[in-house]
């Protein structure tokens, strides 16, 4: 089974690096979105196995996207230079922030504890 990833990141070079890490880990990036609108559109077309989600997309906060993937039961991590004090008890409660800048090791954690649909990245 191929595990699919939706990547939501507005910084092109960061997005390309994360795509490379995911593809090296044998994951299929089914979409790359640079805005909340693009991400929600991609999510309507196909439900990914997991998401990597930037919080600040050119000034728009991606909390609506996080809410939608959480409702769908899609595991996700956040890549952000911001701390979660912006929304301590909200949709990001308990979500891993792999940080920015990040590393391949942080981007590919074992996500096997998120849900029935969860899987291991390694």
Domains, number: 1
CATH superfamily: Response regulator
Total number of helices: 4
Number of strands: 6
- Roughly what percent helix? 25-40%
Shape: globular
In the CATH hierarchy, the architecture is: 3-Layer(aba) Sandwich
**Rg (CA only):** 13 Å
State the order of secondary-structure elements, H for helix, E for strand.
EHEHEEEHEH
Based on helices, strands and strand pairing, what is the structural class?
alpha/beta
Quote the beta fraction.
15-25%
CATH class: Alpha Beta
Ends distance: 14 Å
Here the CATH topology equals Rossmann fold
Q: Output the strand order for the largest sheet.
A: 2-1-3-6
- On the 0 to 100 scale, the average pLDDT is 78
Largest sheet: 4 strands, parallel
> What are the low-pLDDT stretches, counting only 5+ consecutive residues below 50?
109-122
Structural account:
It is a single chain. With 122 residues, the chain is of the alpha/beta class. The protein has a single domain, classed as Rossmann fold (3-Layer(aba) Sandwich), CATH 3.40.50.2300. 30% of the residues lie in helices and 20% in strands. The chain is built from 4 helices and 6 strands, in the order βαβαβββαβα. It has helices at 12-24, 36-45, 63-72, 104-107, and strands at 4-8, 28-33, 50-54, 56-57, 60-61, 76-79. Strands 2-1-3-6 form a 4-stranded parallel sheet, sandwiched between helices. Helix 2 packs parallel to helix 3. The protein is globular and about 30 Å long. Residues 109-122 have low confidence and may be disordered.
């Amino acid at each position: 089974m191929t595990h699919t990833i939706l990547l939501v990141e507005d910084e092109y070079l960061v997005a390309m690096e994360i795509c490379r890490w995911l593809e090296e880990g044998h994951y299929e990036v089914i979409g790359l979105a640079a805005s909340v609108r693009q991400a929600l559109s991609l999510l309507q077309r196909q439900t990914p196995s997991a998401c990597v989600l930037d919080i600040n997309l050119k000034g728009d906060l991606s909390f609506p996207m996080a809410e939608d993937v959480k409702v769908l039961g899609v595991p996700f991590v956040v890549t952000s230079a911001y701390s979660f004090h912006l929304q301590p008890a909200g949709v990001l409660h308990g979500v891993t922030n792999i940080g920015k800048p990040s590393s391949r090791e942080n981007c590919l954690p074992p996500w096997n504890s998120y849900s029935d649909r969860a899987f291991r990245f390694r």
